[in-house]
Specification:
This protein is an alpha/beta fold. It contains seven helices and nine strands; from the N terminus they run ββααβββαβαβαβαβα. It is globular.
Amino acid sequence: MQSPESGLELDGPRHDPESGEPAVGLIVLLHGLGADGNDLISLAPMLAPVLPGVAFVSPHAPFPCDMAPMGRQWFSLQDYSDEAILVGVQKVAPILNAFLDAELAKRGLQENQMALLGFSQGTMTALHVALRRPRPCAAVIGFSGALVKPALLADELVSRPPVTLIHGEADPVVPFPALPAAEAALKAKGVPVSVLARPGLQHGIDQEGLEFAVLALHRHLVAGNGGPA
C-alpha cells in the first residue's frame, strides 16, 4: 500500500481464514529489526485454528536494515537514545497508518476488528501508532518491546485499546525493565494493560507467552466480534 506521506509502499505475506469466508477480524504482525514480514507470518498457521475467522498480514518494514546486510527495519537503532527512537517511530507512523487504513477498507472491517501484534521494535511501533489513532483497535499485543517516550502520552494519547505486554526477564536486547515502565505509564493514562514476565527468556517469543497472547486476542478480537466466547 502506498503512503502519500512518503511514497513508500508497504506489503507482505498474508494468511486468510482457512474457512474461505471473508475475514471477521484482522491481525497485523509487525516484525523486529533485521527480519521481514516472512518472520512473524509463521505464527499465522499456529494461531488461525484457535482464532477462527481471523486473517493475518505481516508487512515488510519500509526501510532496509542499516545494521545487517539483510532484513528490514521500522526505524534505525544505531542510535539507541530515546530521542532518536522517537524520531524513528514518528517517521514511520504515517506509513503504517496508511497501510492499516487501506487494509481495513479493503476487507470492509472496522477498527475494533483489527489487532496489532509486534515484536521488539515492532512492539514499539505498534504501541506508538495504536495509542494515537482516531479510534481504538481491538487489541495491541507486544513482545519484547517498549513504550517510546511515555511522557508524550499526556498530550498525544487518543485511543485506549487493551494492551498485552510479554517480556523475557533475561532479555539482553530490550531490557526487561521496559515492561513495568510501560505498564505503569499506560495504566496511569487509563489504558487497560495485562502483562506476563517470562523468567529466563531472552529476546524471543516462547510457548507460554504465545498462549497468553492468544487468550487476549480471543477475548478482545474474536469474542468481541461475535466469535465463539
